[in-house]
């Protein structure tokens, strides 16, 4: 029964009582009893109203606190996204590492408040549900509980959102810090491999620069041995160059970019490697061709000497036969 209806019935009964001064005593007693019952109902309803007011304030305070914390967590999640992209550069990675550590300290400072609100909210919902089950079934109490149910659903939803977002934010920060450590190790390794490739290419280029022309037949064997050794040294250089390319490919991703300086160094390695490879291949082909021609000429000279020797031997035999005759 609603409070307004109770007041209306009470007013009607009072009017009847006042107008019934001459009614029989029995009737008057009935009216007085009815008024007493209505007074009790009114007192009970007023007490329920006073109880409902702090309960409503408590619900509103809980919801407001949860929503403010959810907004804070969402804002921090956006801030974390803004520092996700990074250059594969040691100084840049160190700056990101400092930013992530500061972010971690900020979360740790806010953690007690968030954990406390989550715990208090869950306890309040649990206790409130228990009290609702144990309460009497008066009309006003039922009306208040029915009005409170939507707020309870909203509170549970906000609790779930805050709990999930808070856990996700901390887990994401853990992943980014671990990823930063991995990127620093990979970037350092890439720089070492790039330096090694530059050093090996510089040595090969220096050897190529000292090559002499192929016009001296007397040094043909020496020059052939020289280019043969260079070809043997090409395999380690090729492995280092390939490793540079593979490491750079593994390092780059949707949130990782190489610095312009590193990109230029990688491009320089590829260009220089192509030039060294071409120079060695050309030298080898020319030396092979020159050696083949040299061998052909040598075979021709040997054949001519054999022919001359055979001719001289035949002449000597003929002369000996003539002398005997």
From TrEMBL:
The protein in question is named Dystrophin
Q: Where is the composition biased (Polar residues)?
A: 118-130
Give the coiled coil ranges.
Answer: 173-207
This chain's source organism reads: Notodromas monacha
Q: Which UniProt keywords apply?
A: Coiled coil
Superkingdom, according to UniProt?
Eukaryota
Sequence ranges of Basic and acidic residues compositional bias: 145-156
Instruction: Answer yes or no on keyword Coiled coil.
Output: yes
Extract the ranges annotated as region (Disordered): 118-156
> Pfam families this protein is in?
Spectrin
Q: Does the keyword NADP apply?
A: no
